[in-house]
Amino acid sequence: MGNCHTVGPNEALVVSGGCCGSDYKQYVFGGWAWAWWCISDTQRISLEIMTLQPRCEDVETAEGVALTVTGVAQVKIMTEKELLAVACEQFLGKNVQDIKNVVLQTLEGHLRSILGTLTVEQIYQDRDQFAKLVREVAAPDVGRMGIEILSFTIKDVYDKVDYLSSLGKTQTAVVQRDADIGVAEAERDAGIREAECKKEMLDVKFMADTKIADSKRAFELQKSAFSEEVNIKTAEAQLAYELQGAREQQKIRQEEIEIEVIQRKKQIAVEAQEILRTDKELIATVRRPAEAEAHRIQQIAEGEKVKQVLLAQAEAEKIRKLGEAEAAVIEAMGTAEAERMKLKAEAYQKYGDAAKMALVLEALPQIAAKIAAPLARVDEIVVLSGDNSKVTSEVNRLLAELPASVHALTGVDLSKIPLIKKATGAQA
């Protein structure tokens, strides 16, 4: 089996080893990890900040002045997995003091190399820049060990030949001189400043008086402007009140119009209902009876039509029967007439011209009657002629033309009859 190991946020736990010769390593900080008995190994390394105090004694600067420099550095092991693995590879199993010594030697080496490139004035006067330079140069080297430089400051700089003291004395003298000059200039400036202040006081007083007058004038102008604005606002308020009253009156009128419209719509609806009622009433009292009467009349007309059709059919049948009877009678009469005509034809054929002549003579009175029919309606005929022989000649001419007319009408030549031929010759 195994154990569960816990670790706080200020240290890291490294679990190495495992089954089948595994070289897997687990890095845990601020958590827990499982380690098997016999086949797993657990080690811890501190993540706390380590304070170092690098010290370089009698290191010559770029000008050959030997200086002693002390500083203070804050470092710690980084927690990124790759960098933590690097730190564990180099420092696992060592105590904190051993780690401090390694990092301290590295910092002191870089501090010495940088001191040899700077002057005393650069180191003394700009310690922050000097510390920054040391931090930037040393950070890559300690970073490759998995160490991070959190801060580095120069604590003290001094020498054994009083070089810095001499610089201080010279600086002190310069400062003293500058102080005396400064006092004289300050007194001079104080007098000038006092006069300027008096002048400024008078200017301020005049300006204050001017501003007071301007303020009074501005107050009066503002007061007038306020009065004018108040009057304008009052007039606008009055106008707005009147406009609002007009709008309210307009709204009231619109509402009255809407009420009238609604009443009119209701009245129209009532009238429409009344029209529908009247229409229904007309349908019930007029249209339906009219339709019934029309239907009755149509039925009567249909009956009359059928009656007329039946009567017409009966009349047609009657006419057909009468026609058939008349046709039969006519056929019988025609047959009898034909038989009679046949007998007459046979008689005519037997007797010859004498029979034909007898027929013509029988027809002449009828012909004469038809010709004289128009003259029957004449009451009196007056012949205007003074010559009696003229009338006689006209009568003779008519008689002479009679046989020719009869021959043209009947085909019978009367001139061949002895009696008529004799009469005609006597007239001629």
TrEMBL record:
<dbReference type="GO" id="GO:1902992">
    <property type="term" value="P:negative regulation of amyloid precursor protein catabolic process"/>
</dbReference>
<dbReference type="GO" id="GO:0030027">
    <property type="term" value="C:lamellipodium"/>
</dbReference>
<dbReference type="GO" id="GO:0072659">
    <property type="term" value="P:protein localization to plasma membrane"/>
</dbReference>
<dbReference type="GO" id="GO:0043123">
    <property type="term" value="P:positive regulation of canonical NF-kappaB signal transduction"/>
</dbReference>
<dbReference type="GO" id="GO:0045661">
    <property type="term" value="P:regulation of myoblast differentiation"/>
</dbReference>
<dbReference type="InterPro" id="IPR036013">
    <property type="entry name" value="Band_7/SPFH_dom_sf"/>
</dbReference>
<protein>
    <recommendedName>
        <fullName>Flotillin</fullName>
    </recommendedName>
</protein>
<dbReference type="GO" id="GO:0005912">
    <property type="term" value="C:adherens junction"/>
</dbReference>
<dbReference type="GO" id="GO:0044291">
    <property type="term" value="C:cell-cell contact zone"/>
</dbReference>
<feature type="domain" description="Band 7">
    <location>
        <begin position="87"/>
        <end position="269"/>
    </location>
</feature>
<dbReference type="GO" id="GO:0099072">
    <property type="term" value="P:regulation of postsynaptic membrane neurotransmitter receptor levels"/>
</dbReference>
<dbReference type="GO" id="GO:0001931">
    <property type="term" value="C:uropod"/>
</dbReference>
<dbReference type="InterPro" id="IPR001107">
    <property type="entry name" value="Band_7"/>
</dbReference>
<dbReference type="GO" id="GO:0016600">
    <property type="term" value="C:flotillin complex"/>
</dbReference>
<dbReference type="GO" id="GO:1903905">
    <property type="term" value="P:positive regulation of establishment of T cell polarity"/>
</dbReference>
<dbReference type="GO" id="GO:0044860">
    <property type="term" value="P:protein localization to plasma membrane raft"/>
</dbReference>
<keyword id="KW-0472">Membrane</keyword>
<dbReference type="GO" id="GO:0098937">
    <property type="term" value="P:anterograde dendritic transport"/>
</dbReference>
<dbReference type="InterPro" id="IPR031905">
    <property type="entry name" value="Flotillin_C"/>
</dbReference>
<keyword id="KW-0967">Endosome</keyword>
<dbReference type="GO" id="GO:0002020">
    <property type="term" value="F:protease binding"/>
</dbReference>
<dbReference type="GO" id="GO:0005768">
    <property type="term" value="C:endosome"/>
</dbReference>
<dbReference type="Pfam" id="PF15975">
    <property type="entry name" value="Flot"/>
</dbReference>
<dbReference type="GO" id="GO:0010629">
    <property type="term" value="P:negative regulation of gene expression"/>
</dbReference>
<dbReference type="Pfam" id="PF01145">
    <property type="entry name" value="Band_7"/>
</dbReference>
<dbReference type="GO" id="GO:0032839">
    <property type="term" value="C:dendrite cytoplasm"/>
</dbReference>
<comment type="similarity">
    <text>Belongs to the band 7/mec-2 family. Flotillin subfamily.</text>
</comment>
<dbReference type="GO" id="GO:0016323">
    <property type="term" value="C:basolateral plasma membrane"/>
</dbReference>
<comment type="subunit">
    <text>Heterooligomeric complex of flotillin-1 and flotillin-2 and caveolin-1 and caveolin-2. Interacts with ECPAS.</text>
</comment>
<dbReference type="GO" id="GO:0050821">
    <property type="term" value="P:protein stabilization"/>
</dbReference>
<dbReference type="GO" id="GO:0002080">
    <property type="term" value="C:acrosomal membrane"/>
</dbReference>
<dbReference type="GO" id="GO:0098978">
    <property type="term" value="C:glutamatergic synapse"/>
</dbReference>
<dbReference type="GO" id="GO:0030139">
    <property type="term" value="C:endocytic vesicle"/>
</dbReference>
<dbReference type="GO" id="GO:0048471">
    <property type="term" value="C:perinuclear region of cytoplasm"/>
</dbReference>
<dbReference type="InterPro" id="IPR027705">
    <property type="entry name" value="Flotillin_fam"/>
</dbReference>
<dbReference type="GO" id="GO:0030864">
    <property type="term" value="C:cortical actin cytoskeleton"/>
</dbReference>
